Structures are given as C-alpha cells and as structure tokens.
Amino acid sequence: MTTHEILKILQEEIHTVIVATVDSQGIPYTCAIDLMLLEDETLYFLTARGKSFYQRLMSHPNIALTGLKGEDTMSSIAISLNGRVRNIGHEKLKDIFEKNAYMNQIYPHLESRDALEVFQIYECQGEYFDLSQKPIFRQSFSVGKEISRQGYQVTDQCIGCQKCYQVCPQRCIDISVKPVMIQQNHCLHCGKCYEVCPVKAIEKVGV
Ligand code: SF4
Ligand code: SF4
Question: DSSP 3-state assignment of 87?
C-alpha cells in the first residue's frame, strides 16, 4: 500500500481518531479529533483557539494518534502515527467545511468559524497494523522524514537451529535460508525469538 492509500483510510474511513498531546509540564492528554482533509500525503484537522488542546498544540507541536476500524479485535485495522504539526490559521477552512458538511451544523455562522484554526501534519511516521489477516500484516510509512525501523532482525551469527521459528506465534521466520530471515510485514514484535536464540543472533532494532 502507498502512504497515500493508508492515510486515505485514516481520513475517510476512520475519520475520528484519538490524539495525544502534552502540556507545558509534559503531562499527556488524549482527545478525539476528526481528520478533515487529505492532500497528497498531508493531513489536516482543526480546533478552536479557546480550547486547551489548541494551547497544547501551540506550545508543543508534536502529536501521536491512533485510529481503529473493525467490529472486534480479530477484524481490526489500526493506523497509528506520530509527527509534527503546524498552525496554518484559516487556510483550508473553506475546503474543510465543503468536504465535511456536518461541520455546518456545529459551526453554523461564519462569525463562529472565526474561532477555528487549521493544523497540518507536515511530518510523521507511522504504521498500518492489520489483525484480520493471517499472519498479521503491518507496514510502516513516513511523510517528510526517513522511516526509523523497529522490531527484530537476525544477524550473521545465526547457526540455523530453528528454535526461533518453533516459538514464533506467527511462524513468520523464513528458515529456508541461513541466517534465517524475519518477514517484517508479518512480525508481531513480541520478542520471543530474541529471548530463545541460543547464540544471541537476533537483535532489537529501534526503540
Ligand atoms: S534461534 Fe538464533 S541461531 Fe537459531 S535459527 Fe533462530 S536466529 Fe538462528
Ligand atoms: S518478534 Fe515474535 S512474531 Fe516477530 S519473528 Fe520474533 S517471535 Fe516471531
């Protein structure tokens, strides 16, 4: 999937996501916001100047968010990202109201819309995580920056004993090669292979 396709699911199909911000003392808060617009790989949302959420965005312009789709855990798709936002004032406000007609009911008058300001997620990295597939499917993406990889990888110290494969809950380790190879798009990042490897041939990548 392309980054645009993943972000399109987030903006159009999921739409309402839970976003985390921190205040000036580093205390985290979450709230629900609607992702209003997607242009190429850039997402936009808005909030009112009087809200605490607005103050947090202005003092610490970093966010993390997660959107979920599906009826239960085993049919769920989660898309998460973290990144940086910038305030673009009233730019895109008209486009947002045209695309999201329900906003006209919440802010019916032009005067009331003056309190709203738009934020752009201009840089982020994230992950698409699909529990409905077997084995599970995950894909990283980024906008405006390099993807910093996370998970586990096998080094040249591998002796091919296959102990990692035997404990892997997703059987996502290719044992037809040596060193064996973790199929990253199907890995849960559970770390069990790392724990059992007798020669410490598996290393953790990222934070
Ligand atoms: S447990 Fe370690 S040594 Fe054995 S196959 Fe897996 S990575 Fe290689
Ligand atoms: S981290 Fe877990 S899911 Fe991924 S390869 Fe290792 S045992 Fe399998």
Answer: strand
Q: Measure the CA–CA gap between 157 and 131, rounded to whole angstroms.
A: 32
Residue range 3-143, CATH number: 2.30.110.10
Enumerate the CATH 3.30.70.20 domain ranges in the chain, comma separated. Answer: 151-205
Nearest residue (by CA) to ligand 1, atom 1, is 197
Centroid of ligand 1 to alpha carbon of 195 (angstroms): 10
Question: Which CA distances in Å does 75 have to 13, 136, 157?
Answer: 15, 11, 38
Give the model's pLDDT for residue 198: 98
pTM above 0.85, yes or no: yes
For the stretch 114-126, pLDDT in tens is 999 999 999 999 9
Task: List, as one string, the DSSP characters of 18-29.
Answer: EEEEE-TT--EE
SS3 category, 186: helix
Instruction: Tell me which fold the domain 151-205 belongs to.
Output: Alpha-Beta Plaits (3.30.70)
